[in-house]
Amino acid sequence: MGGVIMNNKQLQHIKTPLNIHVRGHRDRFCDIDTFDDYTIVSNIGIDAARRIVACVNRCEGVDTETLENSPDLATAFMSAENARLMQVNADLLATLKSIINKAEADYYNTTEQLEVIADFARAAIAKAEAA
Is 91 helix (H, G, I), strand (E, B) or coil? Predict the structure, then answer.
């Protein structure tokens, strides 16, 4: 039987992706390592290791509370994506409000100033499209 060699607080900060490494353990046993070869579980059965690694890697980006409180994985993933899109929306809204506030204050009264705001808007659009 394998053993966790990190405490719960350390486990919350694991960097993914996780990998499986066979290092001379008895047959069908292995270690689970972080992408930078830090062992987090040693001498665990290969089938259990594969399942743990697949689950942890697939759940990257979804916080633990969402996983625990969602009725199923699809809901958890949708919740995480919704939170990400809400942040993108908030960023775009802040940019638009800034543009309007400056426009209402007659800040953009030269061609150069209008080009600055166009660049500002283009950057916000690019950030949203990249998300």
Answer: helix
pLDDT tens, residue by residue, 71-130: 888 888 888 888 888 988 888 888 888 887 777 776 666 777 778 778 888 888 888 888
Judged on CB neighbours under 10 Å (0-12, 13-18, 19+), 42 is middle
Q: Give the per-residue pLDDT at 42.
A: 87
Structure letter (DSSP) for residue 24:
S
SS3 content of the chain, % helix, strand, coil (to 5): 55, 15, 30
CB distance 77 to 90 below 8 Å: no
Which residue, among 125, 75, 116, has the nearest Cα to 96 in the 3D structure? 125
Residue 40 DSSP code: E
Query: Residues 62, 74: contact at Cβ < 8 Å?
Result: no
Query: In a 3-state reduction of DSSP, which class is residue 7?
Result: coil
